[in-house]
Amino acid sequence: MSIVIYHNPDCGTSRNTLAMIRQSGEEPEIIEYLKTPPTRERLVALMAAMTIGPRDLLRERGTPYAELGLGEERWTDDDLIDLMLAHPILINRPIVVTPRGARLCRPSETVLDILPNPDIGPFVKEDGEIVPPRPAAPHVA
Fold first, then answer.
1. What does DSSP say about strands 29-32 and 4-7: parallel, antiparallel, or unpaired?
2. CB-based contacts of 36, cutoff 8 Å, min separation 6
3. What is residue 135's three-state secondary structure?
4. Domain ranges within the chain, ordered by starting residue
5. Matching CATH topology for 1-33+93-141 and 39-92?
6. CATH superfamily assigned to domain 39-92
7. What is the pTM assigned to this prediction?
8. pLDDT tens profile 16-44
9. Residue 11 annotated to the active site
10. 3-state secondary structure 53-118
11. What percent of the chain has pLDDT over 70?
């Protein structure tokens, strides 16, 4: 089973998502995207897999979003992709890719929708929030 997480270890949501993946019994490939940013082709493919556009993937808080004026409509999709590649902190996280799909996992429990085994039992996030258990997805032959 191949699972990939585009991860920022300084982000609580990303850490919670990684913990949920591990609690499901999987050990993902971890890509610290601030150290190893995706290529343009990979970033475009990730957005296509998540069926979102560049504006939907932009992170505002703790980034140069406001300083660059990225809320303005003048930026094209290509411009926004260029800026995310130049400033990877602008890429929202965590992004998780599994055989069941790709998601921007905000909130972290969104990852359960694409895990092969979403039945991770009780889970408590770092902030103390309890994630209710989910039943395993039905097996389709």
1. parallel
2. none
3. coil
4. 1-33+93-141, 39-92
5. yes
6. Glutaredoxin (3.40.30.10)
7. 0.92
8. 999 999 999 999 999 999 999 999 999 99
9. yes
10. CHHHHECCCCCCHHHHCCCCCCCCHHHHHHHHHHCHHHECCCEEEECCEEEECCCHHHHHHCCCCC
11. 94
Q: Quick check: 115 and 134 in contact, CB under 8 A?
A: no
Taking a C-beta distance cutoff of 8 angstroms, is the pair 95, 104 a contact?
Answer: yes
CATH topology for 1-33+93-141?
Answer: Glutaredoxin (3.40.30)
Burial (0-12, 13-18, 19+ Cβ within 10 Å), 54: buried
- Output the CA angle 62-40-16, nearest 5 degrees: 45
Grouping H, G, I as helix, E, B as strand and the rest as coil, residue 1 is: coil
Question: Which of the residues 3, 11, 18, 114 is marked catalytic?
Answer: 11
| pLDDT given for residue 132 in this prediction | 86
Tokens of 58: 């932009």
Angstrom CA distances, 16 to 4, 33, 122, 129, stand at: 15, 17, 13, 11
